[in-house]
Give the backbone structure.
Amino acid sequence: MIAELGHAALWLATALAVLQMVAGGLGLRAGNEAIVALARPAAVVQAFLATLAFLLLLYAFAITDLSIKLVATNSHSMKPFIYKLTGTWGNHEGSMLLWVAVLALSGGLLAGLERRLPEKTMSATLSVQGFVALGFYTFLLISSNPFERLPLPAPEGSGLNPLLQDIGLAIHPPTLYIGYVGLSVAFSLCMGALITKQVTPDFAKVMRPWVLGAWVFLTFGITAGSYWAYYELGWGGWWFWDPVENASLMPWLAATALLHSVSVLAARDALRTWTIMLGVLAFSMSMLGTFLVRSGVITSVHAFAVDPERGSFILALLGLYIGGSLIIFAMRAGHIAEGKRFSATSREGALVFNNVMLSAILAIVLLGTLYPVFTEVFDVRVSVGPPYFNPAGAIFAIPMFVVMAVGPLLRWKDDKPQRIQFEMLLLAAIAITVIALVAFFGSYDILPLLGLAFAAALGVASLLPLRGRKLSRVPTATWGMVMAHFGVAVSLFGMASESAFTSEKLAAVSAGGQEEVAGWTIELQSVDPIAGPNWTAVEARIIATRADGDGVLLTPQARNFWAPSQATSESALLTTWDGQLYAVIGDQAGVDANGNPRWQLRVWWKPFVTFIWYGGLLIAFGGVLSIIGRLQVDLKRRSAAKRGKERRDDVEALGGNAAPEPAE
Amino acid sequence: MRLLTALLILLAAPLVAQSGMPPAPYAYTQLEDPALEAEATALMETLRCLKCQSQSIADSDAPMAGDMRHQVRSRLLAGESPDEVRDWLTQRYGDYVSYEPTVSATTWPLFAIPLLLLALVGLVLLRRLGRRGTDEDAEA
């Protein structure tokens, strides 16, 4: 019954999406109020149904219902319970259902909570949101039905990839999807505002929390994913410009540009068309990311060509939504004035500059990701990796960091650079000092060197907007900006430090043997077999000691899973304030002179590597503060308006002219 | 996310060889000279493990990646330059093995488009921020 209920809920949700689309669309003309009023409830009920469908699939995975094809091919009755649950979205159909459920949920939240927009704009927005949802329901039901039954229940499931049997799978995909799909609301709002020609600061204020919220989740999801790959893959890499990583970075870059642009629109009524363009771009990148990951086109163009149904479907949706939005944009662009003007040396000027830089970095990432796919069609295989992305991205990232340091110090509309002369000199001095110091003590590549310098200067610069202000009176949203910018500096420091200062030690060691790496003494005590719920492993007991400190026990494992049959390395991490010691045990490697078996050990000392993810968390936290700040201001304004109205009503009531109206 | 697609390939070709041939000597052994080893690491990080999904030979347990690491280290030890080793590998395995694309008949757009982008960025900034007076506050 579970599968049939879920399937039915999805079909009902699809029907409601049609209703939402049509009812919202009718809202553009007067006289259809009865039908138009259905758009909001349709979105809310739809959110309920799609969430229900997802929860039912979750339940099917929890009880390992092997009569459902998806469960049988992706789960196993002996798997630990938590991984049975997270396995729900560790496959194509389940993750698309999660995608659609989040889409419906955010649409429902928008319909249920948002009361500030003009009704017409709201109707158009809901109509677009319904249209987007409809496309993805159709995709799910036609080409990726998660509730398909097997003719005969399978005796046992095939299991989940061991790399995915990790708490990382519980966190990373859901947060990333909430971010991806949250941008759909920004997209629908942009379209709604464009169709009804309401690209105003009020519209920007409505859109801002959605963009910020999606961006917080994206930031957190990317950070979590990077840390997950770092400890799970067993080689200590945290970013490889892999197409799938790029697929999550591109929406983030667009969303970062969008959220700065929307702030300018809200505060200064400038950058109207720009904001709309970025809103379209951000969600387009979300959909493109979904296409790249879900179509299999990245793994191999030929695999995609053999089974093109899913890929072509998403590609068609992509064309429909991007093409459609661009057509609306072209038709309306003439009606939307660009907004208030400003000079180059103003805060808006700096924000525009950095939005252009972010867009350029996005273009580089897009090019480097799609180009190999493109040439593969012509049977030419090329690889584009870090040696391309790092320098090509740096061309635009370096000026961006410079402007990011001084931008928040500038005034709106127009400012004189001379006013912040002292700050600029201070930051330049910091950067030059760092470069000189680091270059004096060793020879490093230019990019890590610049990274360290910019991290120091940016770290100081991000705090400068607080200078000379009473800290208790600084608005929460400003704290958010300071925190997020400081997080960028922290993260940059971690990245630069990791690439400049990492020490590596590979060795074949027998029990009792010692090795040295970067001031740490590593002693292999023993290697023992152990067993887990669905794996067996050898576990090394390693004592790591630094200087005259106490020894710390590390227990990396080499695991062999039996369903499906696969080996993984479970790294052991020792975190200190100034970095991480990363230990992995490999295969047995012959015997030593006394006939004792030797084991391959890989140990890295990565100074300040953790700052990469601390920085990511700070950035996300800054976003949260910013949302809180905006909501505070909004609530304050609303309650002030309410009190004012009450007072007027009281005065009227005292005058005895009219009965008091109920307060809102 | 990277893990999610990595699994497709991993399932087809398990990462770690459970048995069989012992790895080549320099697959898991560093070079004595730290400067040379640093060169080797830098080079290995830009070479693709052909049996894996989006991994360099510097971070893969695949036997083939081990063999390639052995090739890189022993060739550098024999006095070849990193570029010579890269050339040798691309002759054997094609451009696909190198993560560092070079300008060629098939890859020139990778370099031409960023230059165009640079020009475009300049143009956009000039139009948007260039010749604006500060006092004209009128809406367009």
Summary: The CA atoms of residues 49 and 57 of chain B lie 5 Å apart. Chain B has two domains: 22-101, 103-140.
